[in-house]
Amino acid sequence: MAEYERPEDHVKDYILRFSLDRCALGSQGYNRVLLQLFGFMGHGKSSLINSCKYVLGDGDYKARAKTSRSHGGVTVNRKAYRLTRTITIVDNRGYSRFNAFETGEIYAQLGNFVPLNEKVEWTNDFETMISRLEDSEMDPNFTDLTVPIFVYSVKKGLNDGEKRETKEFIENCRLMTGVYPIVVLTHKMSGDYTKAENDFKLMGVEQIIKLENYTKRDHHKTKERHKELLKFLYCTLEDVKFQMRYPKNPRRERIERKKFLIKFLHDRDMKERKEKDRRRLDRQGYMRVNSTGLLNVIYK
To answer: Which InterPro entries does UniProt cross-reference here (predicted)?
Structure first.
């Protein structure tokens, strides 16, 4: 019987006692598991954090992470919340879409190059991003083992453009961290979670968890909700245990993440420059055509 299918108290105890030191090759230089939540604004990242704190604690429900009732989203800081001595969950700033203005910052958060508990400012400037990367080397973090978690509300379906952008993001998550992100489908009772699940499977996602978060308005404890949330945490730790079966080098992995991010930023900057040049040439061509036409009218 799978661990998360056992009585909830057993699974909860497993999560609370989880230690990297007990992995197959030990901690290998890591001292913390960082569950990094990503996704569109207002899709339930903050509610997921509050729910995880609720099921792991013994007290009343508390809205530690600020949430929004709409799909607007309120998180602008990259804020960390400690779940256990080993596990910390991070509410990264959400985004409206995967555009050039935000993607660089998203990957900087994913690579752990943006300080925790500080405001995340979107920027599309290559020099500014590189400067921030250099600043991050003043106090580099080599000891966090990142697990990317993509949070998506089934209330809102993905259009074709969003599917392409999301698939690219998921693939880049794998390239940066070495693992596919776990997808958490929220508001499962308020939309077609079967279609959303199939969409993400086609993107190559291996683990998809469907759940209903606790909220300030609805936090009556139920067995099914507790089981779903504990299953989510259990699956993340099983993924960690699997990854830790193999030799790891935290410093080298950070360097590789930085290389990926610099290349991504450079390629994005070059693409933006080419697009600007193309628009400028189009405008110049339009002006020449109009000028020639006007002269023909004048001298006709």
So the answer is: P-loop_NTPase (IPR027417)
What whole-number distance in Å separates Cα of residue 231 and Cα of residue 91? 19
For the whole model, what pTM was predicted?
Answer: 0.84
CA atoms of 209 and 211, how far apart (whole Å): 6
Which string of b and e fits 257-287 if b means at least 16 CB within 10 Å? bbebbeebbeebbeeeeeeeeeeeeeeeeee
Residue 166 lies inside a defined structural domain of this protein? yes
CATH number at residue 224: 3.40.50.300
Type and span of the H or E element at 144: strand 144-153
Task: For 225-238, write each residue's pLDDT tens digit.
Answer: 999 999 999 999 99
Q: What is the pLDDT of residues 74-112, one digit of tens each?
A: 446 788 999 999 999 999 877 766 666 677 788 888 888
